[in-house]
């Protein structure tokens, strides 16, 4: 039977001052989904590897199947597929795990059906899957995972996603400390009301970050990577946050922040050497406070999800 | 005696979603300052034209003299100058009247002294003058008046001003209705605390506006020109605001908002014809509600303050 295998990258949502509106994709890792056409209708999740048995195989709860079903519903199609998911990134880490699965599934399904959709038009289906996986239909992981680079989610009603330029030589370091932080807890510490003054500071910084990306101005990017409305409240949930921040900056990072709702931290750097040194510096602090940590670093992924193989 | 005459343009601060961080300059009008070297030290405001006698001639209260004095203090100079100010824009209109005077004075003084400062380095002196004129050292009028184009004030501590690109063919229409709106009143209706959700919406829109300016994407600029944290509260102070807004958009404006703290309204449009039609549409609504209005339209000024004449 005909089959397609697709890859979708891990992503960093929020991006410090870009709280709830920005995300970017990283080359370091991602999820892979293989789809095989079936003779009869229906989506079946045949296997999931790399999840330690934690993810649901039931089609109505599985993020890959939910995403593909949303696409089939739009097409009025009842094509059947077997789904084989290989997780390349850890669950609940804040690196867009569910998003990468949904996006890889959609990229593969779109190709399997003869590319009925433009890449960007797959976004609503991925958002529908995020709603099932995370309880909220955020786009700040699925948009960069699908499109690559930095994605700005200007609005949801209607969806308005803008792909932003990526300065050459911009690297990301990810530090994933081994402890669990529930998204619900990470959300619950946020304030419903914030000082007007903070909103203005945040606006200024996000505007600076966008200008910095367009200008390839690393200094401006660095000055702009400050989050005054989420990070101060979330940092208390993250052991060693301020020591790690200090160490990453001393090692040369342009800036850092919480990846998604954590516990993974991200840092942006100019060049591979600094990105590597930043990872080492973070690892040292985490080991001092007795936390194991996985470190990844890579360039920003600019092509998003792509097809690995078709038969 | 040696003399220099300089011009500085009117400006629109806030720019809708750019509340408190953005401003741009317009070609339509501005202030002119002529400085003449004196033999003895001291700044003397000799004459002010076009202010209907409302502006102070005392050097310590006059925005031109305060700005020049700040510059002289920095240089450790006690050069004396006679100051002749010609107001080309109305006071208290929300078009950066005090900023244009201060900036024109600084541009002239800098040239008179042999250009000891880069243009951008004159900003702190202009901000010092704004503190005296407005009670707050805002930079969102003085920065675009000095530098031209769109200016982003990312931060004040330290001052971080970024000049943004201007899409070709972007026009501004200004509608100055004849009624007084005190800046203090316009400030007092603002909220100290705002919903986190609004801060995120505002961030998304300002990020969209910046991207739109870099991409010359008029549609994106149009979608992004929405202010959810200041305009809804200030609109109640402006008779006919929502009817005018509707009329300007119907006439083809990309978007509109309150210029500075009002009462002047601004609209951005693609091309001269639309900018003119937008002005007519606004005038019609204002005349229906019995308000006289002055209408101006022009391209965005991209060169900022400049020297008109030196002798």
TrEMBL record, chains A, B:
Pathway in which this enzyme or protein is active: Amino-acid biosynthesis; L-threonine biosynthesis; L-threonine from L-aspartate: step 4/5
Any one GO cellular component localisation term in the record: cytoplasm
GO process terms (BP): threonine biosynthetic process
Subcellular location: Cytoplasm
Reactions the enzyme catalyzes: L-homoserine + ATP = O-phospho-L-homoserine + ADP + H(+)
InterPro entries linked: GHMP_kinase_C_dom, GHMP_kinase_C_sf, GHMP_kinase_N_dom, GHMP_knse_ATP-bd_CS, Homoserine_kinase, Ribosomal_Su5_D2-typ_SF, Ribsml_uS5_D2-typ_fold_subgr
EC number: 2.7.1.39
PROSITE patterns with a match to the protein in the record: GHMP_KINASES_ATP
Keyword Nucleotide-binding: yes
Pfam families xrefs: GHMP_kinases_C, GHMP_kinases_N
Domain of life: Bacteria
Biological role: Catalyzes the ATP-dependent phosphorylation of L-homoserine to L-homoserine phosphate.
UniProt xrefs under HAMAP family: Homoser_kinase
Family: Belongs to the GHMP kinase family. Homoserine kinase subfamily.
Protein name: Homoserine kinase
Primary gene name: thrB
